[in-house]
Amino acid sequence: MAVHDDCKLRFLELKTKRTHRFIIFKIEENQKQVIVEKLGEPTQGYEDFSASLPADECRYAVYDFEFLTEGNVPKSRIFFIAWSPDTSRVRSKMIYASSKDRFKRELDGIQVELQATDPTEMGLDVFKSRAN
User: Fold this and answer.
1) Are 100 and 60 a contacting pair, CB within 8 Å?
2) Is the pTM of this model over 0.90?
């Protein structure tokens, strides 16, 4: 599975310049490559991010999660989310599962990985508990 250069470029922007809150990636099956489907503005939050994931199709996503530590120090963690809802096609789930590790290696700087099959597995509480 090829990875479009735009994927790496946008991820670098998120990581270094904080120009995006999140990135949704899609596998373009005809061209056999991962492409950027949607970019989230820095002002957008978790609700915008979760609403951007289709209910019945697989996607990869990166989310820049900002939080305060117990000592009120602002921090952030870059999450990689493998979104594979139960209602998506079996073929699609297989393609996303088999391509995940290779794609993730292209994105240098992922700090936490989540695998989610429904919205409760990537709720805000899950982000908070995994960020520390």
Assistant:
1) yes
2) yes
